[in-house]
Specification:
By secondary structure, the protein is of the alpha+beta class. It has 6 helices and 12 strands.
Length: 201
């Protein structure tokens, strides 16, 4: 079972991650923007004021980060906000990520602005395990969004869902129960249930 701290460690080891935003026309945009620093449930990154992504974050602060490492993904969703004390945060992130000095040498670094995601959710998803494994965590005052499927009391115990699940992530019972940490969210149980006892969250 993975912990939040282990997820943070993986994020810092990989560094490169895809940040998704929404542009002024409402279209999704994705870019590789490195995760520069993690502290106290907060994810820190930076970008230059001249880049489109800078305006996109200011106009639509709800963002999503996605990192892939050996078929294990970590996804972060939350609101990004620009930090005060720009010089302090830029200098700290440059100290933590020495390669940045080759990209923005000297005072050029101050064209960048620091951002932070502090209230949101993080999901770990591991396809290398059998059955697969997923785990969600809150960041700061964030909330975990319910996902996947749930078997209700309408269940008659026919075991159709049990046989349909590709990950065998359903336990027998009254009603049957989906093991959410092993659920693919594929919907086979939902589509095959003869009594419509399964709901999508």
């Amino acid at each position: 079972m993975i912990t939040k701290e282990e997820c943070f460690k993986q994020l810092r080891e990989v560094i490169d991650a895809t940040l998704s935003t929404v542009d002024k026309n409402g279209n999704p945009q994705s870019r590789i923007i490195d995760i520069m620093y993690i502290e106290d449930d907060r994810i820190y990154f930076l970008t230059a004021r001249g880049k489109h992504v800078y305006e996109e974050i200011l106009n639509h602060p709800q963002v999503s980060y996605l990192c892939l490492n050996n078929n294990k993904t970590i996804r972060i969703s939350g609101k990004a906000h620009k930090l005060d004390d720009q010089k302090y945060w830029i200098d700290l992130m440059f100290d933590e990520n020495k390669f940045l000095n080759n990209v923005y040498p000297g005072a050029a670094r101050y064209i960048l602005e620091p951002f932070c995601i502090e209230d949101g959710e993080m999901e770990f998803f591991d396809l290398t395990q059998n059955p697969i494994y997923r785990k969600s965590f809150t960041l700061g005052n964030g909330r975990i969004t319910p996902k996947g499927f749930e078997i209700t009391d309408v269940c008659v115990g026919c075991a159709t869902c049990f046989g349909a699940c590709p990950q065998h992530a359903i336990n027998e019972g009254t009603p049957y129960e989906i093991m959410k940490e092993h659920c693919l969210h594929c919907g086979r149980c939902f589509e095959n249930c003869p009594t419509s006892a399964i709901i999508k969250l």
